[in-house]
């Protein structure tokens, strides 16, 4: 049984940029939390890359830390 591909590998995205907010928001829930690995269907490496991009975007004030 083969595992389904995640969004990043299916669309051949090698790097998640912190300035690409449309892509990052796909993996955030309405409260602004990063969705889990199983729900987002990403590999461990892609999940770490996404988390780093979200944290950088929050630090640069492109994303809120929590949704108001």
From TrEMBL:
GO cellular component: cytosolic small ribosomal subunit
Gene3D superfamilies on file: Ribosomal protein S18
InterPro entries for the chain: Ribosomal_bS18, Ribosomal_bS18_sf
rRNA-binding listed as a keyword: yes
Keywords associated with the record: Ribonucleoprotein, Ribosomal protein, RNA-binding, rRNA-binding
Keyword rRNA-binding: yes
Recorded GO MF terms: small ribosomal subunit rRNA binding; structural constituent of ribosome
A biological process term (GO) from this entry: translation
Function: Binds as a heterodimer with protein bS6 to the central domain of the 16S rRNA, where it helps stabilize the platform of the 30S subunit.
Family, as annotated: Belongs to the bacterial ribosomal protein bS18 family.
PANTHER family: 30S RIBOSOMAL PROTEIN S18, SMALL RIBOSOMAL SUBUNIT PROTEIN BS18M
Subunit architecture: Part of the 30S ribosomal subunit. Forms a tight heterodimer with protein bS6.
Family matches, as NCBIfam families: S18
Protein name, per record: Small ribosomal subunit protein bS18
């Amino acid at each position: 049984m083969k595992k389904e591909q995640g969004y990043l590998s299916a669309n051949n995205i090698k790097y998640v940029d912190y300035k690409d907010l449309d892509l990052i928001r796909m993996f955030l829930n309405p409260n602004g939390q990063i969705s889990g690995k199983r729900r987002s269907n990403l590999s461990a490496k892609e999940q770490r890359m996404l988390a780093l991009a979200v944290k950088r975007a929050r630090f640069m004030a492109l994303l809120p830390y929590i949704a108001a």
